[in-house]
């Protein structure tokens, strides 16, 4: 599904609601499986480290780094499509908001496993995506619109998990 919807997105036309939902769901399914693998690997790695089992830790770190490479590739793939095709082709406020929200989401996914300056950089890009979506949503969508509510939820997750700012 991802490959087919990716081809449609690269046509540089305004996607229908059904098309951008298919693209979003397709990538969400792919990234969701990788994120779950990464979380499990990180948990197992911590347990093995606490046991002092260096051989297992080495194997787990190796596998976790492969999962991180895959996560990076998926995120970069969809972010390239969003930046080069979807946002420039968007003519409706609703779709523009949705794409900026996706941009915030996929940079947030990168921030979940990046470290140091790389984490700061992708977190900043995520913040910019969410802010752009939020600015447009506040004028173009009602407070109860599903996209605006989803944006508010994901933006709050970003503040809580990535920026460690639960008060926001």
UniProtKB/TrEMBL annotation:
SUPFAM superfamilies reported for this sequence: 14-3-3 protein (SSF48445)
Organism encoding this protein: Coptis chinensis
PANTHER family: 14-3-3 PROTEIN (PTHR18860)
Name assigned to this protein: 14-3-3 domain-containing protein
Family membership noted in the UniProt record: Belongs to the 14-3-3 family.
Superkingdom of the organism of origin: Eukaryota
Domain named 14-3-3: residues: 1-168
Gene3D superfamilies: 14-3-3 domain
Pfam families: 14-3-3 (PF00244)
């Amino acid at each position: 599904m991802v490959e087919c919807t990716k081809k449609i997105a690269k046509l540089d036309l305004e996607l229908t609601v059904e098309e951008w939902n298919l693209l979003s769901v397709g990538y969400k399914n792919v990234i969701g499986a990788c994120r779950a693998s990464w979380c499990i690997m990180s948990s197992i790695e911590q347990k093995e480290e606490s046991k002092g089992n260096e051989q297992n830790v080495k194997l787990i770190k190796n596998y976790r780094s492969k999962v991180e490479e895959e996560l990076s590739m998926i995120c970069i793939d969809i972010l390239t499509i969003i930046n080069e095709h979807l946002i420039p082709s968007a003519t409706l406020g609703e779709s523009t908001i949705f794409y900026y929200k996706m941009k915030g989401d996929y940079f947030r996914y990168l921030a979940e496993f990046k470290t140091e300056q790389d984490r700061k950089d992708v977190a900043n890009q995520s913040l910019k995506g969410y802010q752009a979506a939020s600015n447009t949503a506040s004028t173009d969508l009602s407070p109860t619109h599903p996209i605006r509510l989803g944006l508010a939820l994901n933006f709050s997750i970003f503040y809580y998990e990535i920026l460690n700012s639960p008060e926001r």
